[in-house]
Amino acid sequence: MKIRLDRTVCDGFGLCAKHAPDYFSLDDWGYASLVGDGTVPQQDRDAVMRALLDCPVHAITELGDRRPEVVHPSPGSSEDAADNLKTESNEAQWGFTR
Predict the structure, then answer these.
(1) DSSP states along 30-89
(2) What is the pLDDT along the chain (98 residues), one digit of tens a residue?
């Protein structure tokens, strides 16, 4: 995992340094700085993701291609693809898009 911190967006809440102090430090005014080059090993991923998700101004972003895992039904499956079709009648199940 690789992350980036946009210091121009940071408002100095300090939650990132609280959750992942090995990757974020605060300057004299309370604004965050990224420690290192943004590379996060697997064992520290949870703490850094917590910092990313808790940042109220979204100053931390994850870099790279994150593609959702697509599960394709097996060829012998009798599952009808129309059952998973997104329509207005089942909109509450998949989220608001308008």
Answers:
(1) S-EEE-SSSB--GGGHHHHHHHHHH-TT--EEEES---PPPPPPPTT----GGGG---GG
(2) 999 999 999 999 999 999 999 999 999 999 999 999 999 999 999 999 999 999 999 999 999 866 666 666 666 555 666 666 777 777 766 665 55
